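PT: before anyone asks, these are the final sequences, not the draft ones from last week. 458 residues across everything. Please model them as a single complex and drop the result in this thread when it's through.
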Amino acid sequence: MPLRFTDTMAREKREFTPADPKRVTMYACGPTVYSYAHIGNARPAVAFDVLFRLLRRTYGEGAVVYARNLTDIDDKIIAASKETGEDWRAITERFAQIYRDDTAALNVLPVTHEPLATAHIPDMVALIGRLIESGHAYAAEGHVLFSVTAFDGYGGLSRRNRDDMIAGARVEVAPYKKDPADFVLWKPAKPGEPAWDSPWGQGRPGWHLECSAMIETVLGETIDIHAGGQDLIFPHHENEIAQSCCAHGGAPLARVWLHNGFLSMDAEKMSKSLGNVKLVHELLEHWDGEVLRWALLSAHYRQPLDWTDALLEQSRTALDRAYTALRRLKDVTPAGGVTADGVIAALEDDLNTPQAFAEFAALVGAANTASGDEMAAAKARLLDAGAALGLLQRDAEAWFTGGDGDGPAAEEIEALIQKRKDARAAKDFAEADRIRDDLADKGVILEDGPGGTSWKRA
Ligand code: AMP
Ligand code: ZN
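LR: through. Structure below.
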């Protein structure tokens, strides 16, 4: 089936055809790395990871080039550095690594390119220079501004009228602006702030400009897919389009625009400024990364998603069922050439993950009842569905005995259970009880039954 995506620019679902199926390009705006990611921030990373997996499956693993930047210079980073006294580079390096670790725990594949804004300043300066030359930008009082009246297509993505745009951008109507809607491409540094040389003095690039320059350098002039959160449509993506189109003689920035909806808690958008956030690294202390991923994918990426404990419980139950089926088939070799067609068809239809989960549940049911020759195909289908969704990446046995958290490893526990058995056989009951209590202190509970001793984590 052809891929179909809802394109924000076209306002409708359309068949997707890349310009070159041998090099399919996608870009997602990445995080500003000055603090921990909350689970709302993880939603675009996970949703567009499903997209990345689908494109790789469709066009070939080596044919898809996915870039997601890290914004490592910004007012918020400078403010964090001033507040804590920590060097701004130390802050951004630390939180960049935390972001990589958090997303990896959610089975988000590494992207092909992870450009750092500060590694592309010369590209940004060059892009601004071209925009000035072509009459789309002007320098004023150490700033460089983009002149929105010089671009007819301005507002095309967000379909806002001019007054809405001026209000929505909340841009300071500074005296050096020719038009109140003009936005900054380069801004001067205050004394002591990080700064780079430019023809307009020491300063740093504007956020929108960073993405345009990195896309141009890493991916090219017109990319196949540009993705991000709905809050980025205006002004961020509108401004990226203005800059890139004008620098490229009118060539579009992206053929398709995808935007994810917000994650909310108690009907309010999860956001740092409201303070109603659940941090990914904290959630991971209590929940497996796959449970968080399941919960994030349970709603369609364009729809809002309300984050609740009940959602997490349901997600864990669904995964427990799937891993129970896999554990049942642990000695079965999966059949070759069998694919999860229903799940894939759902994803090909605008990444319809709720529909994919319904198909997935049917595969789990089939794997739980399969017998004889059906078992190999049932296991293959379930694993293929898991690969497409980025789930079932764990060993089924380890899923239930949890080998990755705190506490002793499974082998160590098994060895202690054997030692306890030996102690009991030698009638050293004090030693046997000591081993049991010792494991209990470490959160491992032993259960003696007719078939021997089994264990679980408390
Ligand atoms: P911020 O830290 O607010 O700049 O957000 C970083 C990224 O996370 C952006 O792509 C946002 O679109 C996205 N994002 C922030 N909050 C949410 C949320 N509550 N739900 C979904 N995406 C979000
Ligand atoms: Zn961007």
